[in-house]
Amino acid sequence: MKNKLITYPMRIKGNKASTSGPEIAANAVGERRAYISMMMLLYIALIGISFLRYVFYLLPIAALFIWLTYRNRSVNFTAMPFWLLLAASISSLYEADANGMKMSYLMFVYTFTFTLFDFSKIEINFNKSIIFIFFVFLIHIVLGGEVGHISFSLINSESTFESTLAFPLGVLALYFFIVKKYFSFIISVVLCVIMLKRIVIVALFLAIAPRFLGERLRSFILNPYTVSIFCGLTVMFLIELAKGSFDVFFVETIDQSANQFTKGRKELWDATLNVVNFNYSEFAFWGVGQGKVTTLLENAFHTKDIRLHSDLLLLVLQFGGLIFISFIFFLNKHDSMNKRTMSLFLTTLFLTDNVLVYQHVMVFYFLAMSQLERAENKEVQISEN
């Protein structure tokens, strides 16, 4: 599934086509307005004030209004893999509960917005984004009252300042590395470490490491077929881990139980596999439906809003192996190695967290992808001229 190539109005200059600056500015009016509206809503929601935290979910309404009120309307196909998940959830609508509707809408918010707008038409200053994220981070520290109790452990994944803001910072760090803005890259990485999320560090390593390998090996690692197969094997590993197949290995290797190392995820995953009556053959083509995993866990543990902390495993249990593999394949299928690198980073985040419903992660992922496309389009135009 290839992303849509953006096309700008062109004027002929000699024997070559060149992009007209005023025409580009006119075409990007909708994108600029949508970007400003989206980021305002996002930062307001991220501040942490209870009655404002849901304001971002109004974005589809604002996005549709902006899209309808400017003349150069188009549709962007970058978010198509996520439409696949939304389409797959339709089959469970007839018995959908609150969790199913909630998860579908959370995915719809960013999928719909990035379908309406092509943000590669505008230039985004991600250095400003770092400043805003850091400001939000400071607000969280002050409101949390944890300044005087500092602890940090990479092995135990413990940090006084642990925050999901590490995820968008990881996206920005990788973007800065790809475009060779190394000072911004270092700042982003340092903040990622402070806001400790181990999977972000792992994802950065897995995404960056292939860039130091030979071209053939790098192409093989970033190939969507390779990534899809690896993700399938990874889910099988998580399932066997949950069942206790690697308990002895963890104790003998790192002197921690598998449940300790995974921060309680092993027992959660094991309980989940039991409540859905998992077996490989039945879940190869069909899952329990959108949101049903959360509902079953809530009923089993008698508590609300339980997250599985692994989007990879969640996708298999909700939609089955076929939709899972299809989604991973199309998510990582891009023409350029830079975009494949960014998609690999996101795919790795899916391993141990609930990124699919984190708006601040998905927004920055799509924005970073748009700016990579913008840079590639500029290179093409320069080579043509």
UniProtKB/TrEMBL annotation:
> Could you name the domain of life of the organism this protein comes from?
Bacteria
Annotated source species: Methylomonas fluvii
Presence of the UniProt keyword Transmembrane helix in the record:
yes
Keyword Transmembrane in the entry? The reply is: yes
Q: What is this protein called?
A: O-antigen ligase
- Keywords, comma-separated and alphabetical: Membrane, Transmembrane, Transmembrane helix
Residue ranges annotated as transmembrane are 41-68, 74-93, 105-124, 130-148, 160-179, 185-208, 220-239, 312-332, 344-368
Lineage of source species: Bacteria, Pseudomonadati, Pseudomonadota, Gammaproteobacteria, Methylococcales
